[in-house]
């Protein structure tokens, strides 16, 4: 069975801080970099942030960046904002239109508090 594990499971941070979310897959992803990151806000569908491990999807703010390859990946938010609150999850995929893995249990729940 193919799985993806993210850590930590929950992060609380202050606006302006850097946040890193790690994703480790149980085997190497297709082509070494077919890994996407999504953000899902309450009541909304997931939105693609990053594809091919480090390519920003159109409309993704530049404070988001992705890195890694094969089975270890990282999503970094530099200068996190209040609107970044939500569930983050990674997803590996193959070269075609069919996703090879989508594990909603492997989400990242990001909670924020305003800087004092």
From TrEMBL:
Residues 95-116 are annotated as: Disordered. Residues 1-111 form the Ig-like domain. It comes from the Eukaryota. SUPFAM superfamilies: Immunoglobulin (SSF48726). InterPro entries: Ig-like_dom (IPR007110), Ig-like_dom_sf (IPR036179), Ig-like_fold (IPR013783), Ig_sub (IPR003599), Ig_V-set (IPR013106), IgV_Light_Chain (IPR050150). This is Ig-like domain-containing protein. It comes from Cirrhinus mrigala.
